[in-house]
Amino acid sequence: MKIAIQGIPGSFHHQVAINCFGQDAEIIGFRTFEEVARCVSQVACDFGVLAIENSIAGAILPNYELIDRYNLTIKDEYYLPISHNFMCLKGQSIADITEVRSHPMALLQCKKFFEQYPQIKLIDDIDTASVARRIRDERIKNVGAIASKTAAKIYGLELLAENIQTVKDNFTRFIILQKPVLDLGFIKPNKASIKVTMKNEKGILARLLTVISESELDLSKIQSIPVIDKPWEYAFFIDLQFDDYKVYQAVIEVVKKEFGDVKVFGEYVNRK
Ligand SMILES: O=C(O)C(=O)C[C@]1(C(=O)O)C=C[C@@H](O)C=C1
């Protein structure tokens, strides 16, 4: 089985791919999230793993747009506890480090820690582990990485500080993507991710939320994203949790009829 991820061994995406698909899965690493989405849409891989939101840094908005544009299906979700660690080539101390490189989401999660070291510049890079590997391969001094302890071990770096994320309980929600499938097999879904492109009417969002709340569906996430060909109009990505699939389906029908276009990205099992 081929699994597409952004990143290399030691990255958090790599960890999720192993946790979900086992050690024997063939994990194919890409440099960008877009390449992952494209690979899954072309069925060059069976599944893709994509981070979608983090409990400290918030949503990764461009990834919502990718799921939509490449017409992908959300098959499942996975919540990974994230512990970030500050690391560098052996034999250096924090005072030697002038810049730290990592994935932008990782930097956001550790911003507070670096406030005490104003001499260290924070620089966006591809993914957490690839910085660790580059530091090792090119024997780069004075540069630190933020990555998992697994990455420090694989790439032989020294830990300068552990668990440096702003809040110790830190989670990233990942989604497992595949090409559209209508057959859910044996899965009994109790969660769905949908996009509603609403008519621009006064009070319409409040009315939609009332319909959802009165139906007893649990709205676990709502995120607006711009409709790119209609400036200042927005679509809403909504996650819904439910006990009764029929109630959920009935609400979807009402939303389609009264509120606007609905695109269902996936129906799956809540893993929170
Ligand atoms: O760089 C990595 O190791 C990743 O897997 C990327 C990523 C992200 O996209 O949010 C995954 C989890 C953490 O939140 C930080 C970075």
Descriptive report:
The chain has helices spanning 12-21, 33-41, 61-69, 104-114, 128-137, 149-154, 204-214, 245-258, and strands spanning 2-6, 26-30, 47-54, 58-59, 73-81, 85-88, 99-102, 121-124, 143-147, 158-161, 171-178, 191-198, 218-226, 234-241, 260-268. The protein has three domains: 2-82 and 170-178, Periplasmic binding protein-like II (D-Maltodextrin-Binding Protein, domain 2, 3-Layer(aba) Sandwich), CATH 3.40.190.10; 85-161, Periplasmic binding protein-like II (D-Maltodextrin-Binding Protein, domain 2), CATH 3.40.190; 191-267, Alpha-Beta Plaits (2-Layer Sandwich), CATH 3.30.70.260. It is built from eight helices and 15 strands. The model has no long low-confidence stretch (mean pLDDT 95). The strands form three sheets. Strands 1, 2, 3, 4, 5 and 11 form a six-stranded mixed beta sheet that branches. By secondary structure, it is of the alpha/beta class. The site of prephenic acid has 14 residues, from α1, β3, α4 and α5. Its EC number is 4.2.1.51.
Topology:
Elements: E1 2-6, H1 12-21, E2 26-30, H2 33-41, E3 47-54, E4 58-59, H3 61-69, E5 73-81, E6 85-88, E7 99-102, H4 104-114, E8 121-124, H5 128-137, E9 143-147, H6 149-154, E10 158-161, E11 171-178, E12 191-198, H7 204-214, E13 218-226, E14 234-241, H8 245-258, E15 260-268
Parallel strand pairs: 1-2, 1-3, 7-8, 7-9
Antiparallel strand pairs: 3-4, 3-11, 5-11, 6-9, 6-10, 12-14, 12-15, 13-14
The chain binds prephenic acid.
